[in-house]
Each structure stands twice: as C-alpha cells, then as structure tokens.
Amino acid sequence: MNNYETVIIARPDLAQNQVEELIGKFENVISEQKGKVTKKDFWGLKNLAYPIAKNKKGHYVVLEISAPATAIAEFERKLRLDEGVLRYLTIREQELTPTAAAKLKKNQAPAKKDEE
C-alpha cells in the first residue's frame, strides 16, 4: 500500500459539522477499498489565494491516507462529483526508512565536497 496526502477545500457555506460529515463520507470510500485514513487535520475556514467558483474562503482539510492506487482513483472520482468540494490535491508520499535516509545523506555528502 502506498501513502498519500490529500488537501481538500470545501465550500465556505458549509457548517463545521457538515464538513466533518463530508470527510466521513470520503473516509468510508477509502475503507471500502481496503485503505485507511491515518491522520485527519481540520485547518478551518481560510482565505483562498484567488476566488474559486465565486468563493473567497474555504474549509481546508488534510488527510493522510494509506491505500492502494485503485482506492485513490475511486476516492478522487467521488471528490470530483461532490458539490461540496471546491478543490482537492492528492500527492503520493515516499517514506524513507532510517537506514535508507542515512545512506542517502552519506551518498550526498561527498558530492557537495567535490563541488567546492
């Protein structure tokens, strides 16, 4: 299973409990596809950088998901269809094990010395 991070911007006219219900609905989609939401973070109502569908604010929610790629495809399809969602962005995260991170730092250190 891969790890993903999704930022969802919901319509500003939704109440906080409606946003939580909306996110719960999407959590169910992930769990039905044999994935799980490992972390859920509500950022609240924030100003948008530019108006989206005549909205200047939106409810921001960040989800960290561990799921197969097919689950993410279905999850994003449902996000596109929902009228409560203004925008979303899903990225795949790569977690490095401590030994791999140490090897990566070790390999990068000599390259920097050669450049000087």
What's the helix count?
3
Average of per-residue pLDDT values = 86
Largest sheet: 4 strands, antiparallel
Number of domains: 1
Class per helix and strand makeup: alpha+beta
In short:
This protein is α+β, with helices and mostly antiparallel strands. 41% of the residues lie in helices and 41% in strands. α1 packs antiparallel against α2.
Give the helices and strands, then pairings.
Blueprint: E1 2-10, H1 16-32, E2 36-52, E3 55-67, H2 69-81, E4 85-93, H3 98-115
Antiparallel strand pairs: 1-3, 1-4, 2-3
Helix pairs in contact: 1-2
Provide keyphrases for this structure:
four-stranded antiparallel beta sheet, 3 helices, 116 residues, alpha+beta
